[in-house]
Structures are given as structure tokens and as C-alpha cells.
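Try this one yourself first.
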């Protein structure tokens, strides 16, 4: 084949498939952590990438995750670290709790900024008005409206508690 001519067929990019920006950032940061010999970042990012890969191959067929799906996976992993840190603290294992908190802090760097109480209250009020809810029976439709708007910026339990508080008060 002459120089500059391309082979017919799909391009390299289409064979590789879509790679979420956040996933690519994790890979780049893993390389940087390896060069810096930062064990906590290395361990945490490897775990995150493994969780993302497991999510991609789960189900009937393998697929690439979008950035929103990657954020959901990272949020789930951060929640696991927080719960583990609390459990280790309660058991008197402060060294393990500190390690879990450190991993949680690394993951937090990849998550969207968390909503403040005032911001959350405003979003809840807006969703309640939009759904026309006036009692606890309207909680489902309100949560359905809120979930995509909040997307990783607030813990689901915190959102549900705020919705309950607003609908019952």
C-alpha cells in the first residue's frame, strides 16, 4: 500500500470504541501515581478502574460506560469506603479507618462537587412544585424528577430525607 493511503474499513477510533473522559482521566492519573510511587492513589485508582470494567462487562453484552455511569460507579465505591471507615472506627481499628478515608478522599476528587443544604432544599422545592406533590404519596414522582438533576452531587439517602421533611412539614 502506498504511503498516506488508508486501508478500507473502520478507523482505529471506531474499533476501540467510545472511552469516557473520566475513565481516560483515571488511566492517566494511574500512570502519574505509578511514577510518583503514590501507593494510596495507585491502589484506589486501580480499584476504581476494576469496578468500572466489571460494570462494563456485566449483563448480556459488554459495553462502554458513559461519564455519568462512571460517576455512579465511583459514587458507589466512595460510599463503600465511607461505610467501611465507619465500621473500622466503631471496631477500634483506626489505622484501617484512616486507609479507607484516604481512598474515599482520592475518589472524591473524581466526583462532582456535593450540593450544599440550601442548594438541595431549592432543588427539592422546585421538584415538589413541578410534581404538584403535597403529601408523602407524592414522594415517588418527586424523587423521579430529582434523581437525574442531582446525579452524584448528593447522597440518595440525604435527598430522600429532605424530600420527606419537606412533604411531611
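Now uncover the answer:
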Amino acid at each position: 500500500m502506498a504511503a498516506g493511503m488508508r486501508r478500507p474499513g473502520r478507523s482505529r477510533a471506531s474499533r476501540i470504541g467510545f472511552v469516557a473522559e473520566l475513565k481516560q482521566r483515571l488511566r492517566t492519573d494511574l500512570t502519574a501515581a505509578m511514577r510518583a510511587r503514590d501507593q494510596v492513589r495507585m491502589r484506589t485508582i486501580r480499584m476504581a478502574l476494576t469496578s468500572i470494567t466489571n460494570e462494563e462487562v456485566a449483563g448480556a453484552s459488554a459495553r462502554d460506560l458513559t461519564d455519568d455511569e462512571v460517576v455512579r460507579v465511583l459514587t458507589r465505591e466512595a460510599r463503600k469506603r465511607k461505610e467501611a471507615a465507619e465500621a473500622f472506627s466503631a471496631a477500634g481499628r483506626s489505622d484501617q479507618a484512616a486507609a479507607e478515608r484516604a481512598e474515599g478522599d482520592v475518589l472524591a476528587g473524581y466526583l462532582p462537587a456535593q450540593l450544599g443544604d440550601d442548594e438541595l432544599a431549592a432543588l427539592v422545592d422546585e421538584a415538589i412544585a413541578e410534581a404538584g406533590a403535597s403529601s408523602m404519596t407524592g414522594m415517588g414522582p418527586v424523587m423521579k424528577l430529582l434523581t437525574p438533576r442531582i446525579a452524584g452531587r448528593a447522597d440518595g439517602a440525604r435527598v430522600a430525607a429532605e424530600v420527606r421533611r419537606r412533604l411531611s412539614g
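Discussion: The helical segments are 12-16, 21-36, 39-57, 67-90, 94-108, 117-131, 139-150, 156-168. The chain has two domains: 17-108, 117-168.
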